[in-house]
Amino acid sequence: MQHALSEASLPRGFRFAATACGLKKTGALDLAIIASDVPASAAAVFTQNLVVAAPVTISKQHLHASKGRMRAAIVNAGNANCATGAAGHLAAQRTVAETARRLACTPNEIIVCSTGVIGVPMAVEKILRALPKLTSNRRPSARSFAELSLAICTTDTRPKTAAAAFKMSGKRIHMVGCAKGAGMIHPNLATTLAFVVTDANIAPALLQKTLRDVAGRTFNSISVDGDSSTNDTLAVFANGAAAAPAIRPNTAAHRAFSAALEEVCQSLALQIVADGEGAQRVIEIEVRGATTEAAAKKIAETIATSPLVKTAFAGGDPNWGRVFAAAGRSGVHFDPAKVEITMAGVPVLRKGQPLDFNERAASNRLLADHVAIVLHLHAGAASARYWTCDLTAEYVRINASYRT
Amino acid sequence: MQHALSEASLPRGFRFAATACGLKKTGALDLAIIASDVPASAAAVFTQNLVVAAPVTISKQHLHASKGRMRAAIVNAGNANCATGAAGHLAAQRTVAETARRLACTPNEIIVCSTGVIGVPMAVEKILRALPKLTSNRRPSARSFAELSLAICTTDTRPKTAAAAFKMSGKRIHMVGCAKGAGMIHPNLATTLAFVVTDANIAPALLQKTLRDVAGRTFNSISVDGDSSTNDTLAVFANGAAAAPAIRPNTAAHRAFSAALEEVCQSLALQIVADGEGAQRVIEIEVRGATTEAAAKKIAETIATSPLVKTAFAGGDPNWGRVFAAAGRSGVHFDPAKVEITMAGVPVLRKGQPLDFNERAASNRLLADHVAIVLHLHAGAASARYWTCDLTAEYVRINASYRT
Fold first, then answer.
1. How does pLDDT run across A272-322, given as a tens digit for each residue?
2. Among candidate residues A230, A257, A274, the one where a domain is terminated
3. Does some domain include residue A110?
4. Which of B189, B330, B397 lies nearest to residue A322, judging by beta carbons?
């Protein structure tokens, strides 16, 4: 699913850089910057967790104070700067202040993100020492974007990038994104960070609304293990450098922009699931025939987060009983006697009754990289999709290992 | 935790029997009866799952129609009789009718329970053939109770029984219970069945109310993997054979009865958790200082069902960050800056700030059979406990294996 990004797919007017400042013990890239040459419209969605890291608190304040006109995101991996108290808050503020000084902008124009170990004091001097070179090295190149996508990784086995483009008033609008996924080694947490940049021209309020809609169908419709982290952040910058007219709500241009954003976000979200710890395959749960989209999503989410369902998929087991039972405990009312279930294209249940099927053939289909399960309620016209990965012994091995 | 039941601990006026009718392919005990010599007060709580097996539907109807005066429970393992359509419903009705005929009572006086594979037609002839001998073999003996506790097992590695007693008006009141726990091999589900019998004298309505309260703090406060089954049933029979006066609400006798029922139910519930698939240890999550008991329970439940928390405990990892973060996404509001966490007696977080502690010593304590985690919110006076087990690679191995 990963797009090999070419120079031509990059939006104009953005520069990227990454460096190894020493937060990752391995000496790998661990500090990165994304900066627009001019103030850009910015929008973001953050973790819903009540326990949040200092960078999330500060980024929310800045997004609000700047009225969604921002310049850059400064991101580190290797330390989540969470549960680090007043010192951690100060560390994030000093990182922002120095970045702003180097970019000749105000602190309010900066988003700051951290991912990694929690509860460990932030060695902010390492970041401050690295910032001058990092900011001066930023480049509008595919290579620097690739370095950024690597620097934000923690236990990801591969970087995650995506791109989309569309035309508007004769101008080509570019959009690229990168993300890091669920990964934790004691006492880390599964943090999702994702950044999307585009040279579209769109007002902050419309960008925020569009992002929220898209996030609901993409990043908020995936689960690796049902845990949400203290640092999750998805931020979008739109700097208008393509020189196209401003995108107005409910126009063809807005639909094209939304579709491009959804394409990028869905690709990144599915890459995160596919790279879930120990994951062998992506499971797509689609619930159809519900009375509302929210009801469909609730059922799909309950199935997607069931350990029994997820372990069955690790073994390619066409275990429709677990799917049916998970739907039944979702809290959404439906008539079990009307339910139809198809697994990897094989009908296994109709009108609530088991069907005869070739279990060996079905099991073989369930061992594919991407497996679709469809549950039809026959109660209405609404539907929703949710993506997860299988739960394997490798997941347990990764997460049970004590820090060595 | 398992009690070796003696003859003296059995309540008077109950007889038990078990046989191998052929539903378990191994030839093990798979059909059992619990019968009171006289009509007993009966109460039960059932699965909240929308997808329910035929026996659950029928038992609910009978409990209602008999106004809580019942004679017996007939139970099979090896086939859950779920998603088996009209034929499955008829199979359960025929089982009940024949049991009632043998006991010379009405079908409404019988509870019927099944556990095992779902979606497979019920071979009811096997049950009907075995019923005459089963009913005539029932005995008021500790041995027959032990056989009952074995017959209801599926993938449990050991039977689960518990007993309690108290005195009232000079009479000794006896109570014993047995349960089966979470176990599934394709396409089974984790079904909990539990039965408690007592010779106390208590009206059906008060028994039902007491059972509901106790179940909330015991069977409804445990989780092996967050999945609830289509067949879960907890039933209590009280036949008054101890010849003590009727128990009235809010008296010392009622408190003694509630305490005995809670002791039996908590013991059975913890035995189920301890025998959770692949489990190495019981994790007790206690949330203190909440504004309400419901809020405390919601946080405790969210922590107890977090795969990240459960895998950390598999490795004896003092990973307080995962506990803190799970609490944060529970949906209950609290101030993270006031939170205090203690793991296996080791304080690890105070006022939302990490404490220095000896990680090796803490890890050793976390490898015990029963580990207690206390999270104090400092927001109020309410508390709740929730029990779960660790999530191990063995759990995945058991549940991912395709039917052979």
1. 888 887 888 999 999 999 999 999 999 999 999 888 888 889 888 888 988
2. A274
3. yes
4. B189
